[in-house]
Design brief:
14 strands, Helix Hairpins, Beta-Lactamase, about 475 residues, about 20% strand, rod-shaped, 8 helices, Heat Shock Protein 90, 5-stranded antiparallel β-sheet
Length: about 475
């Protein structure tokens, strides 16, 4: 059963129960009032008879019209059980209870009786009536029966029952119709959500959104559904971009690997063939093989680092960024003894992975050393904004600046130099993984400036500046 039908049935059942209770209470109250008036009249006449002097041979006393007037039917039942009709020319039924009242052993009671087509309300009560026997008065116990017709009351109650039944049925029908209408309006937004979900399942299209009609529970559901679609669309876009980047990486890697592998194979084949190779040619080929092997090894290492860097950071620690840069500077001095590294490192902490941060800083320092002239100076700075590395070489061609961090991009000034073209791409990847970014600019007085901007926290207890130079 659909939710709309269930809501309609619930609304109809709820209204039906309420109307049924109202109908039952109304009928009970009206019936009680109508029959209560008849009972009051019978009790009033019975009280008048009992409080006065009752003579068996005389007519039973009545009551005023304002109190209901005398009962239409009256009957005296003697102690012997013989009835004597006094009014109405209708013989009322005499039961065992009536005889007990007439004999003085029973108590007054009210009951409904059916005499032919007449439905009557009857009261039976005991009296001590005066009887004249041979001129001598004496008192004798008897029972008096007074009855009033209920046919008029029954007719009114019958019409009332019909009206109340129609009201009950009409109330349920109206409640069902209004409940169905209300359910349709309330569930319309849910239907839109269901249609949107079905559309997504059939077409795999995440661009559609559910309209929000009101700020209620259903509206909040639509809002959250739209927010979920936004996140799914963003996730899909990121996934598509990741897949595209991976495919591009594979394609670029294949292209970059083909040249050193081909050259290495050619040199190895020549060496294997032997022939009339001079010692000088053999030495040159062996040197080329070693150089190409190192180039190939560096390229594979960079590719592995890029692939590993695509994985999200699962566990990060508080890392002293100045300590990492200090170690990287010591390494750069050993690898490039002809370059002067001027380091000024402020103690700061960054939340990250030490190994990846070290790789990024090493790549920056290696890049600066390669583009610095012999005896040149590389300035290294660490502060609350991150890491800044400047060389005093020829700078970066303005056309290359927007692309220096792209994978396998080799600028004009980098062509002819050994390198995979992945070092700065790894720098950008590491910075973004740690919630930061990278920039590349040319200094006004010459040289290039590379920065890794990271969210850091300064250490107040440490010296403000740490200076190192060689």
């Amino acid at each position: 059963m659909s939710l709309r039908k269930r809501l309609t049935l619930i609304a109809a059942a709820s209204v039906g129960v309420a109307v049924l209770i109202a109908v039952a209470v109304s009928y009970t109250v009206v019936r009680g009032q109508l029959r209560g008036q008849i009972d009051d009249s019978l009790n009033a006449q019975a009280e008048a008879v009992q409080n006065g002097t009752f003579h068996m041979q005389q007519q039973i006393p009545g009551i005023p019209a304002r109190a209901g007037g005398p009962a239409q039917y009256a009957q005296i039942v003697l102690a012997t059980g013989n009835p004597q009709t006094e009014a109405g020319n209708l013989t009322l039924p005499v039961t065992e209870h009536t005889r007990e009242v007439a004999a003085g052993t029973g108590r007054e009671f009210l009951t409904d009786v059916q005499v032919g087509a007449n439905h009557l309300r009857e009261i039976t009560f005991p009296v001590d009536g005066e009887v004249i026997d041979n001129g001598v008065p004496r008192f004798e116990t008897a029972a008096v029966q007074l009855a009033r017709p209920l046919n008029g009351t029954d007719s009114i109650l019958s019409n009332l029952r019909l009206i109340l039944v129609l009201l009950f049925v009409g109330g349920i029908a109206l409640a069902a119709a209004l409940g169905r209408l209300a359910a349709r309006r309330v569930l319309a937004p849910l239907g839109e959500v269901a249609q949107a979900a079905q559309h997504i399942g059939e077409t795999d299209d995440l661009t559609g959104r559910v309209p929000v009609h009101a700020d209620d529970e259903v509206g909040q559901l639509a809002t959250r559904f739209n927010a979920m679609l936004d996140r799914l669309e963003s996730s899909r876009a990121a996934l598509d971009e990741s897949v595209r980047a991976q495919r591009q990486l594979v394609a670029d890697a294949s292209h970059e690997l083909r040249t050193p592998v081909t050259s290495l194979r050619t040199n190895v084949v020549v060496l294997l063939q032997g022939g009339a190779l001079s010692d000088e040619d053999r030495e040159r080929l062996l040197s080329d093989v070693v150089e190409q092997s190192e180039e190939l090894s560096a390229l594979v290492g960079d590719l592995i680092e890029l692939a590993r860097g695509d994985q999200p950071i699962e566990s990060a620690d508080d890392v002293r960024l100045d300590g990492i840069v200090e170690e990287a500077v010591d390494r750069a001095r050993r690898n490039a003894p002809g370059i002067d590294f001027d380091a000024r490192l402020q103690p700061v902490v960054v939340d990250g992975v030490p190994e990846r941060l070290v790789r990024a800083v090493n790549n920056l320092l290696d890049n600066a050393a390669r583009h610095s002239p012999a005896g040149g100076t590389v300035e290294v700075r660490v502060d609350t904004s991150g890491v800044r590395v400047r060389d005093h070489g020829g700078g970066v061609d303005p056309q290359d600046l927007p692309h220096v961090f792209d994978r396998f991009y080799r600028g004009v000034n980098s062509r002819g130099r050994q390198g995979s073209g992945l070092g700065l791409a790894i720098v950008r990847q590491v910075a973004e993984q740690h919630g930061g970014s990278v920039t590349a600019t040319n200094a006004p007085d010459g040289g290039a400036v590379f920065e890794i901007l990271l969210p850091t926290t300064p250490l107040r207890s440490e010296p403000a500046v740490q200076a190192m130079s060689s």
